[in-house]
Amino acid sequence: MSTEPELRTDPALLPVLDELRRREPIFHRPEFGSTRADHRAMTVEDFWEVGASGRRYSRDYVLDVLDERQRNPQPDPWETGEFHCRQLADAVYLLTYTLRQGERVTRRATIWRRDPEGWKIVFHQGTVVADG
């Protein structure tokens, strides 16, 4: 018996899946903005995240880290796959996927909300995939 869930996106959500897939991984898509103002605009006021370490991070902390990355850019090759989208409420969606950064593999989950101004990130979590 497989421990893996069978993740299928409802065909009616495929356009949403396509839009959100192009925005992930969050804060790594310069075409959606790379400044603090851009990142602030793409997150809700009470945005927070759980990092792969298990630590919780506030919106301001995340924005500070992103500012530092802009000042000192480093190569960060990555690859995404295994996208799945589920609608949670009216205009609120859960997008999950796998992110590979070299040897490091994480499962990612982002809650997105479609606002009149565009897509907003409500919450994000990354979890390291255990060996074996």
TrEMBL record:
Highest taxon of the lineage: Bacteria
Residue span, DUF4440 domain: 41-121
InterPro entries the UniProt entry points to: DUF4440, NTF2-like_dom_sf
SUPFAM superfamilies cross-referenced by the UniProt entry: NTF2-like (SSF54427)
Region forming the signal peptide: none
Protein name (Swiss-Prot/TrEMBL): DUF4440 domain-containing protein
Organism per entry: Dyella agri
